């Protein structure tokens, strides 16, 4: 058997990959975070599949379910919201599976920041304006940030910053980024990206906190700050440039 860590995407059930959907439909056991994974996806599971909501389980209980499925010879679809590579808590699960000698694979999914960019109809990298995207979060009581990865330090780069898990702390975000980006820097918040109840907020950095609070956004949101969000005057990319020599490599 194999445990498949599957990126379920940002919310819309049809944003799971074809590979992820195929594996989900073939796995007799499915573990999913009920608060984050769209329930519509569970309809893709086999009719007699064992469905386990991990929202209230700790890491040892989750591991026990994976070990049990392995003992029974059942493949497992382990659904994670977005993409497993970012803020997914997959590392500790893979570590335990390694220790138990249980095989697993990782199936990528559409990350929340990509769905947010799609909702904003924005390319996050713009020629001559910005070519760097920083994915990060802010320090909370549960998990501190490593030294040098605080917003004040990251903000010195001037690169587009994408913050996950930070909507509750939007005042801190604005306070720490304003000295580096300026009060007029374009900012956006996308909550529940790709879902029917999607919320899109835009404006200068100094207005975004009030918009977030007025909209009642406290979770399942991505905050973006950077000049590429408002770029209108920029050079075309070299890829499709009219004068580019396409005879070589």
How much helical structure, as a percent, in the residues?
A: 25-40%
| Beta-strand proportion | 15-25%
What's the story with the biggest beta sheet?
5 strands, parallel
Low-confidence parts, pLDDT < 50 over ≥5 residues? none
The whole-number mean of residue pLDDT values reads: 93
Count of helical stretches = 7
The number of E-state strands comes to 10
What would you call the shape? Answer: globular
Backbone CA Rg? 20 Å
Order of helices and strands: EHEEHEHEHEHEHEEHE
Q: Within the largest sheet, what's the order of strands?
A: 3-2-4-1-5
Helices and strands: which structural class? Answer: alpha/beta
Q: What is the rounded distance between the termini? A: 44 Å
Organism: Streptomyces cyaneofuscatus
GO biological process, one term: methylation
GO molecular function, one term: precorrin-4 C11-methyltransferase activity
Keywords: Cobalamin biosynthesis, Methyltransferase, S-adenosyl-L-methionine, Transferase
């Amino acid at each position: 058997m194999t445990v498949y860590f599957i990126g379920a995407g940002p919310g819309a059930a049809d944003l799971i990959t074809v590979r992820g959907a195929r594996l989900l439909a073939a796995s007799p056991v499915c573990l999913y975070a009920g608060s984050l994974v769209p329930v519509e996806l569970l309809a893709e599971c086999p009719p007699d599949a064992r469905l386990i909501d991990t929202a209230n389980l700790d890491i040892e209980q989750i591991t026990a379910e994976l070990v049990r499925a392995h003992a029974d010879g059942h493949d497992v679809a382990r659904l994670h919201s977005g993409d497993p590579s970012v803020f997914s808590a997959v590392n500790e699960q893979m570590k335990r599976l390694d220790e138990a000698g249980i095989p697993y694979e990782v199936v990528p999914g559409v990350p929340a920041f990509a769905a947010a960019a799609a909702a904003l109809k924005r390319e996050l990298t713009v020629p001559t304006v910005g070519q760097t995207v920083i994915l990060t979060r802010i320090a909370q009581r549960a998990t501190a940030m490593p030294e040098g990865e605080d917003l004040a330090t990251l903000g010195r780069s001037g690169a587009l910053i994408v913050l996950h898990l930070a909507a509750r702390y939007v005042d801190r975000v604005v306070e720490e980024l304003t000295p580096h980006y300026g009060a007029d820097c374009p900012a956006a918040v996308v909550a529940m990206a790709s879902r029917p109840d999607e919320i899109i907020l835009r404006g200068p950095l100094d207005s975004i906190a009030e918009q977030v609070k007025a909209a009642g956004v406290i979770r399942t949101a991505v905050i973006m700050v950077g000049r590429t969000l408002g770029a209108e005057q920029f050079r075309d990319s070299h890829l499709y440039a009219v004068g580019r020599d396409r005879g070589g490599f």
